[in-house]
Design goal:
By secondary structure, this protein is α+β, with helices and mostly antiparallel strands. The chain is built from five helices and eight strands, in the order H-H-E-E-E-E-E-E-H-E-E-H-H. The N and C termini lie far apart (199 Å).
Length: 251
């Protein structure tokens, strides 16, 4: 028996999805894996990188870190031998959601999407077991994320409900004392006088007028003569001048 193959099977069976696989299925999985080694501080993949591989940790410790919008890196989790990381990239091939850094000398076995397709053809039992493990891991992390969100929202609501420092709760107004009773007898209100009924509005009588006299005719001046027409002129009395006899000149 090849001691190297045995050690690889043992390392692979440390991962929960492959714990119950037989030698043949383990060898089929190992045939599609690629071994990688990392030293302390090495980045196996970075947040935002495109990837399509998952990693089975055989030795060492890996740190998952995420960078906040402010630029500060926060450690999310630590992974050790037998853990599987980066499995979502095999399913959706989306950018990495965190950065994976080696905290010490580390050995991992990397499985790509193409290797998973080949494994589904050659060892369907191992491929199905791995896919079920990926789904369970995704659901478990989703529930954890949801629980964290609920906790943060609950803490924020309690903080908003609590009185702020330096501000007292508004004082309740004192209860008003009952009004003292007036010993004098009550005064009867004046009787209510009914208003007289409103007079009905009378319609104005319609006056019948005699027919008005016909208007007198209007005398209008004659229109002036149109240019170009000869207007009649009145006759003038011209006196007749008698003829005068002049004296004849003698020869």
């Amino acid at each position: 028996m090849n001691p190297s193959a045995t050690s690889r099977r043992d390392a692979l069976r440390m991962a929960k999805p492959f714990a119950t696989l037989g030698d043949a299925d383990c060898d089929a999985v190992i045939s599609v894996l690629r071994a990688r080694q990392g030293l302390p501080g090495d980045v196996l993949f970075a947040q935002g990188d495109l990837g399509d591989t998952l990693m089975v940790i055989a030795e060492g410790t890996l740190l998952a870190r995420v960078r906040r919008p402010s630029g500060l890196e926060v450690e999310l989790a630590r992974f050790g031998p037998g853990d599987i990381v980066g499995e979502l990239a095999v399913v959706d091939a989306q950018p990495r959601s965190a950065t994976l850094v080696a905290a010490e000398r580390t050995v991992v076995y990397e499985l790509s999407r193409d290797g998973l397709a080949r494994l589904a053809r050659e060892a369907p039992v191992a491929a199905t077991t791995l896919l079920r493990s990926i789904a369970a891991t995704a659901v478990r992390r989703l529930r954890w994320t949801t629980d964290q969100i609920v906790r943060q929202l609950d803490g924020a609501s309690r903080l908003d409900a609590a009185p702020r420092a330096g501000h007292d709760a508004p004082a309740q107004p004192p209860a008003s004392a009952p009004a003292a009773r007036d010993p004098s007898p009550p005064i009867d209100p004046p009787p209510t006088v009914a208003a007289p009924p409103a007079a009905k509005a009378r319609a104005a009588p319609v006056l019948e007028l005699d027919d008005p006299p016909a208007p007198a005719p209007i005398e209008r001046p004659l229109a002036p003569a149109i240019a170009g027409e000869a207007a009649p002129r009145p006759a003038l009395d011209v006196p007749v001048i008698p003829e005068l006899e002049l004296p004849r000149r003698r020869p």
